[in-house]
Amino acid sequence: MSGLWIRSAIFGLTLQLVMGTAGVWAGPPTETVKQVIEKALDALKEPGSPAAARRQKVKRIVDPHFNYQEMAKRSLGPAWGKLSAGQRQEFVSLFSQLLEASYSDKIEKYAQNVRIDYTGEISSGDSVEVRTVVVKANDRIPLNYRLMNQGGTYKVYDVIIEGVSLVSNYRSQFSRIIHESGYAELVKRLKTKVSELSRTG
Prior knowledge:
By secondary structure, the protein is of the alpha+beta class. It has helices at about 1-10, 30-45, 50-60, 70-75, 85-105, 105-110, 165-180, 185-200; strands at about 115-125, 125-135, 140-150, 155-160, 165.
């Protein structure tokens, strides 16, 4: 799973929320993201604040705007329906830890000299896909966000990186592990991966 870990670390879910922006993103999701961006940038620029403290503050700012349960559910696929309430709670917690460990040490590094161009917004029922391009040096990476309307509040439930769904990518890998070794083995591997990433972060 190394390829996915690297990509999710570099273009992690908080990438857009901690960088400068360009262009106009119309609609309620835009206003939410703009507020988060301003708060996150302020947190990252706090003088004399330790990196760990800045990361924790950014996490507290960003977390409320991501639907980790929906992301975990979609990433696990059919296996989700076979889990008990306790197992689901454990998996959502583990999944969110996985995402945090994957991107936390990259946030400040990739927040420099990057521009986000907003190229469109597509609505479908209660969902919205916001299309953006990450511009860094001579590189342009399409990075689209899928948000779900929950009682008037938009939350991210998937990210499309260069045409590849982060959730779908996880789902294919999780499904393979479950098919070959079972759900317990998947949980074991994820815990190991989170521990490894946390130590190197």
